[in-house]
């Protein structure tokens, strides 16, 4: 499910059965922490920080250590290209 969501392109709506977000959600229901992290990053890229935090929390509960660390810091700016496009970019740091 996670691989299908990566290939999907546009995220689409969660309710659409063949959207990338729906495939990620199906992966989360199947127990994939990476899918939850992908949903968190998709929420961040949309500018929905509440959704970002919710999916980070879920990924951390499922055992994703990167998500737990990111949740602990809860940065509202990240150093990747999509974050710059949405106005939430920052320079790379040593810990990145």
Q: How would you describe what is shown here?
A:
The chain is mainly α. It has helices at residues 2-7, 20-29, 33-46, 49-61, 65-73, 81-85. It is globular. The termini are far apart.
Order of helices and strands: HHHHHH
Please report the distance between the alpha carbons of the first and last residues: 27 Å
Residue runs with pLDDT of under 50 for 5 or more positions = none
What form results from the Cα inertia axes?
globular
Largest sheet: none
Question: What is the gist of this entry?
Answer:
Helices cover 59% and strands 0% of the residues. The protein has six helices and no strands. The longest helix is centred in the middle third of the chain and has 14 residues.
Summarize the SSE layout with pairings.
Layout: H1 2-7, H2 20-29, H3 33-46, H4 49-61, H5 65-73, H6 81-85
Helix pairs in contact: 2-3, 3-4, 4-5
List the main descriptive attributes of the protein structure presented here:
96 residues; mainly alpha
């Amino acid at each position: 499910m996670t691989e299908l969501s990566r290939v999907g392109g546009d995220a689409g709506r969660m309710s659409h059965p063949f959207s990338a977000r729906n495939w990620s959600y199906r992966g989360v229901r199947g127990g994939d922490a990476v899918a939850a992290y992908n949903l968190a990053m998709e929420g961040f890229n949309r500018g929905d920080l509440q959704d970002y935090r919710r999916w980070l929390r879920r990924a951390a509960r499922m055992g994703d250590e990167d998500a737990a660390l990111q949740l602990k810091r809860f940065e509202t700016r990240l150093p990747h290209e999509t974050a710059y496009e949405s106005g939430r970019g920052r320079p790379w740091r040593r810990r990145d």
